[in-house]
Amino acid sequence: MIELLASRYAYALMFVLMGVGMYMMIANQNLVKKLIGVNLFQTAIFLFFVAVAYVEGGSAPIVPTEGDPGAMASPLPHVIVLTAIVVGIALTAVGLALIVRIHSEYGTLREDTLREVRADE
């Protein structure tokens, strides 16, 4: 078991980040901490895509003019991760803007307090 974890440490780290992110999204009442949990979960997914795309002894996907090309790494997962990073940054920016607006309107960031305030309206 230890040998498997030593050889696949990226997957172990991915599961840890995913678990911490999911816990932060579920267990915390603070909206900023929930957003940080979403970002940790996204980072775990990015790590998963990069770990899956790794090819042992692979080369860049540029076809040589001579000789055997050998094993090549697919650029598609890396492109997807780059796109997802941009989307994640935009999601974080919109989330933070909404959090600032919620705080200015209600004066709190706790989810349970917000529910009580909204129920009174």
From TrEMBL:
It holds the Pfam family Oxidored_q2. The keyword Transmembrane helix applies. Keywords: Membrane, Transmembrane, Transmembrane helix, Ubiquinone. It is a multi-pass membrane protein. GO terms for cellular component: membrane. Gene3D superfamilies: 1.10.287.3510. The chain crosses the membrane at residues 6-26, 38-55, 75-100. It is found in: Membrane. PANTHER family: ANTIPORTER SUBUNIT MNHC2-RELATED, MULTISUBUNIT SODIUM_HYDROGEN ANTIPORTER, MNHC SUBUNIT. This is NADH-ubiquinone oxidoreductase chain 4L. It comes from Natrialba hulunbeirensis JCM 10989.
